[in-house]
Amino acid sequence: MRVGLFIPCYMDAFEPEVGVATLELLERLGCTVEYPVDQTCCGQPMTNTGCHQDAAAAEALFVKNFSGYEFIVAPSGSCVHQVRVNMTAIEQTPEVRAVRERTFELTEFIHDILKVSEFPWARFPHKIGLHYNCNSLRGINLASPSEIKAVPFSKPRALLEKVAGVEFVEPARWDECCGFGGTFSVFEPAVSVKMGQDKKFMHIARILNGAPA
Amino acid sequence: MSLDPTITQPAPVLHPEVIGDRFEGAKDAEGRPLVHAEGTSKPIRARTPHEPQPRGARDRGNRPVDQIEAAERFIAATEHEKAHDERLWDMRLRRDKAAHALPEWEDMRALASQIKEHALANLDTYLGQFEAAAKANGVVVHWAADAAEHNRIVHQLLKDRGAKSLIKSKSMLTDECGFRAYMAGVGIEVIETDLGERIQQLDHEEPAHVIGPAIHKTREDVAEVFARTLGSDPTDTDIPHLASVQREATRPLILKADAGMTGCNFAVAETGTVVVCTNEGNADLSANTPPLHIASIGIEKIIPRFEHLAVFLRLLARNAIGTPMTQYTSHFRAPRAGAELHYVIVDNGRSERLGLKEFWTSLKCIRCGACMNTCPVYRRSGGLSYGATYSGPIGIILDPTLNRRKYSSLPFSSTLNGSCTNVCPVKINIHEQIFAWRKVMSEEHRLPFVKSEMMKVLGYVLARPALYRAALGAADEALRLLPHFVLANSLNTWTNKGRDMPEAPTQTFHGWWREHRGQTRKSP
């Protein structure tokens, strides 16, 4: 299975190890992974700021880089949400539509496409609190959000449950937004910082201090 | 502290068998339960000094509201922010519990949405039906194209009857019309009968939340307002005491008022009925005490049939505060004997909104406030930071239809997390409309210069791989340029607001790939 790997701009610069881990995981699961080196960004910062026309060229470049791959995988729910739902500043040719339909977030790709259900080689003996990016949760439905009355599900959690040693801890307000919100964090710093701090403290309270949920 | 000095004993309990020996509340000297709040009141001393209440967005006239600045001040008032956030989050949790207890919850949301969309798509027909049914019931119906006409109509009704004072239950529509300010200008006294709205009126503030107008205030703030306006003890912050102080002061005004006014939660086309939902019974006071009842009704309040009401009543209180029903659900259909009932049906921009392809479904809103309760930005910035009648997620999508320029900045006061959409009882795609409003504001050149320029530069660089790589730092080694690139140089808000720049690693993923995976493949 030939997979084009998209590494989001912030991850490329700040968290390259996540990119490396994604690559190695996909390879271990049998994918042939290629990283088109001319990739930049999915266009999300401009689109979410309302400047769709300013995103058009970045969107066209994304399509140029990833056209022809059977699947495009990114370890980022919000970038996948942008591609799948909001990449509309460019003409919707069959090529563009194909790229948009074939783009998957890493955990949904493993869960829905590769359908891997065992990770016998993996072990992670730690307590973990899962935080979902809001676009993953409410935009591309990687898990069921707390507001909706539905049979709960979580694709990332379903995968992690197969990893030996993982113990899940649920912080209070487990699916409240972290406050990042892309350019929101730049333009509305006070609220963004407060939300980030609250999120952090709620995880700390549950995971490190064992506070009741 | 009974209003009527001749009543010295508490009223008999209606269902003593329910209380029995298990009654654990306060009792009088004879051991009978005290049934009113004042019976249990004990002074609670205000903490001194306590944190002053942060005020809302500064008045900038018609210039864009600076929600960000007001939010910063709200967050700086840490006690207020914490209490506000926790109180509203608690309402969200109560909502979840009540909503998720009903197996048919999501189906009811879908049904409510369909009923509202159908009613809006056939609004002319149903408004006609409503008017005809109301007239047949003896109601006088008036039509107001905008806020000014609404205010004029009501004023004329009062003037013709020599009315000098008006008691009014909570109505967002009248707030939208600037009704209190208008009435003050023509010398008619308006007395709000909803406790929260009355607090806000006494404090000269707009409602901060559609169902909890004073939810941003602490008990100390309320004690301070009542001390200033009603002459109560500023150091007694016991809530039953504060409630009774207000009641003692307002009841005489209610009893002698010349006219009463209510809003409308649902206007039933089939029967011509106006349904008003409250938890304080204040709509009933406003409607039933004076000889004249005026109901202000937004045209979008229409539902076709009486049977549809059940769907909305089951959703409304559960979604708002987690109770099965509001304490009072009052149906007004015809004037009382010897009294008058008037409906003022108001457009005020709603027809225009109905014509907006991406935004017309915002008219489905039933004003439950759940989107505010769940909104992480609203909870941390307070309703008054939006500087508009409607705040929070629903405000962000309604306000620009009332004043495009003034509210052009509001769609950016959101993280687009989507929780508002999921709690909406009538399934308005709120966060998608917020997103769509951003596009409108950008296309109409209403973004601040620095923001639009930043996006132009970003869009230009991100479309050019070589330039992008150069901006990240030569040869993927030191990424020292990155912070400046990310923040477009001029906007260094990142590190001076309680954050550090993340330590940039010495190599990007791109650099790692080139080093470890040898040849750089071009796109296929």
Structure overview:
The complex is a heterodimer of chains A (213) and B (524). Chain A has 213 residues and is an alpha/beta fold. Helix content of chain A is 47%, strand content 8%. Chain A is built from eleven helices and six strands. Chain A has helices at residues 9-14, 16-28, 44-48, 52-66, 77-86, 94-101, 106-113, 134-139, 155-160, 184-187, 189-208; strands at residues 2-5, 32-34, 71-74, 103-105, 127-128, 167-168. Chain A has a four-stranded parallel sheet, sandwiched between helices. In chain A, strands 5-6 form a two-stranded parallel ribbon. Chain A is globular. In chain A, 49% of the residues are buried. Chain B is an alpha/beta fold. Chain B is built from 23 helices and ten strands. Chain B has helices spanning 16-19, 67-76, 78-100, 105-121, 123-136, 147-160, 172-176, 179-185, 195-202, 219-230, 239-255, 282-288, 309-321, 350-354, 370-374, 376-381, 392-402, 419-423, 430-443, 449-462, 465-472, 482-486, 509-516, and strands spanning 140-144, 165-168, 189-192, 259-262, 266-268, 273-278, 292-298, 302-303, 328-332, 340-346. In chain B, the strands form two sheets. A six-stranded parallel sheet of chain B has the order 1-10-7-4-2-3, sandwiched between helices. Chain B has a four-stranded mixed sheet with strand order 8-5-6-9. The longest helix of chain B has 23 residues, at 78-100. Chain B starts with 15 loop residues before the first helix and ends in an 8-residue tail after the last helix. At the A-B interface, α1, α2, α3, α4 and α8 of A face α2, α3, α16, α18 and α19 of B.
Summarize the structure.
The complex is a heterodimer of chains A (213) and B (524). With 213 residues, chain A is α/β, with parallel strands linked by helices. Chain A has eleven helices and six strands.
